[in-house]
Design brief:
Belongs to the 'phage' integrase family. Keywords: DNA integration, DNA recombination, DNA-binding. This is Integrase. It is a single chain. By secondary structure, the protein is an alpha+beta fold. It has three domains: 98 residues, 2-Layer Sandwich (Double Stranded RNA Binding Domain); 107 residues, DNA polymerase, domain 1; 195 residues, Intergrase catalytic core (hpI Integrase, Chain A, Orthogonal Bundle). Helices cover 46% and strands 11% of the residues. It is built from 17 helices and nine strands. The strands form three sheets. A four-stranded antiparallel beta sheet has the order 1-2-3-4, with helices on one face.
């Protein structure tokens, strides 16, 4: 049993300044240690239980630093420690267990933003297109992170998911659906890695379907806004007066009826100007199959007029050297539309689609594939399978697709030449 020292007052404790160990009394074994650097800390010297050999173990229990822990607080803590020892509890072992539990808890802590980035990193090797990772990141950053980014994944529940989805579910249904699926994947990843447990609050079936309307019921205008084909020639005349890489990329997109992403990622080594062929590799195609595009005289002339850069293989590079964004092409149409409306004309709109305010939607780059499809189907005698091949579509009839193994390249050359001539009217 430690000797009971004289009880020091708070003022006496404050005056202790020489390095050393000072018994302060009030509780057996309670000391104030003054360190050489001037710092002070509370220590309680105790004898704990018995070891395997039957000997008692002497230990020092830290009670905190002075003056953050006052004399009275140190005495109270010391009494609590001694009471635990009396009850057969080892306070040092208890602290180690608590510290271990804390570290284990921290090891399972991860925010949604951290989980999303790790999930994307883990899944990206299975994606055929490297741009998918960027699309995932952009979607989550824009719509999910403002609400979920700093939340621990284990704490995310249905109300959080609804807070993200409800504002865009009816007005950007396709985006909202895609976003929901990506959030679900991130949380599934977190569950598999033991960062959370329980059901996935972003799951649709048996969960969100009871709280949100079916996408098919609210996405009535889900198609990309398209310009009526009768207005395509006037649009192209206006477009050819526009300057900039974005305008040329949009013109090339329309002439080839390609997807804007295929055009924005086009590389010079994919193009044979002499043969008039653009070969898009499988890893850049939606269907995962190589696609050859016949280039008309107009498309070849457009390409020949473009500048080339030694250190950049992209046909339509952005000003900073990377790929153009899809918004760049959309911005060209928007500027053209605004100039038309300012002049008192209706602009370039899709009369069959309206926005949430009931206004006609402005045509989109992707919508020109529909413009081309409507023109070819309604005004020409080109076979349907030729038109579908030109759009790089998978034929819906499996039997028909099984026999249509060729690319119908020569027939597509004639089709695209007619389209270019029509656009030049």
């Amino acid at each position: 049993m430690p000797r009971v020292a004289k009880e020091l007052s708070a003022l006496e404790v404050k005056r202790l300044s020489q390095p050393g160990m000072y018994a302060v009394g009030g509780v057996p074994g309670l000391h104030l240690q003054v360190l050489p650097g001037g710092g002070k800390t509370w220590l309680l010297r105790v004898t704990i239980g018995a070891t395997a050999s039957g000997k008692q173990r002497r230990s020092e229990v830290g009670l905190g630093g002075y003056p953050a822990v006052t004399l009275q607080q140190a005495r109270d803590k010391a009494r609590e420690v001694r009471e635990k020892i009396t009850q057969g509890i080892d306070p040092i072992a208890e602290r180690k267990a608590a510290r271990s539990a804390l570290l284990a808890s921290r090891a399972t802590e991860i925010t949604f933003e951290e989980a999303a980035r790790l999930c994307i990193e883990a899944k990206s090797p299975e994606w055929k297109n490297a741009k998918h990772a960027q699309q995932w990141t952009n979607t989550l950053t824009t719509y999910a992170f403002p609400t979920l980014a700093k939340l621990q994944v284990r704490d995310i529940d249905t109300p959080h998911i609804l807070e993200v989805l409800e504002p865009i579910w009816k007005v950007k249904t396709e985006t909202a659906e895609r976003l929901r699926g990506r959030i679900e994947s991130v949380l599934d990843w977190a569950t598999a890695r033991k960062y959370r447990d329980g059901s996935n609050p972003a799951r649709w079936r048996g969960n969100l379907e009871a709280m949100l309307p079916k996408p098919s019921k609210v996405a009535k205008n889900g198609n990309h806004a398209a310009l009526p084909f009768a207005e395509a020639p006037a649009f192209m005349t206006h477009l050819r007066k526009m300057e900039g890489t974005g305008a040329r990329a949009l013109e090339f997109t329309i002439l080839t009826a390609a997807r804007s992403g295929e055009v924005r990622g086009a590389k010079w080594d994919e193009i044979d100007l002499e043969a008039g062929v653009w070969t898009i590799p499988a890893d850049r195609m939606k269907m995962g199959k190589e696609h050859t595009v016949p280039l008309t005289e107009e498309a070849v002339a457009l390409l020949k007029a473009l500048p080339r850069f030694e250190d950049n293989n992209l046909v339509f590079p952005a000003s900073r050297g990377g790929e153009l964004s899809d918004m760049t092409l959309a911005a060209v149409i928007k500027r053209m539309h605004e100039s038309e409306t300012k002049a008192g004309h209706k602009g370039y709109i899709d009369p069959k689609q309206t926005d949430k305010n009931g206004n006609p939607k402005v045509a989109t780059p992707h919508g020109f594939r529909s413009t081309f499809r409507d023109w070819a189907g309604e005004t020409t005698h080109h076979p349907r399978e030729v038109i579908e091949h030109a759009l790089a579509h998978q034929l819906k009839d499996k039997a028909e697709a099984a026999y249509a193994r060729g690319s119908l390249f020569q027939k597509r050359q004639a089709l695209m030449a007619d389209w270019a001539a029509y656009c030049a009217k």
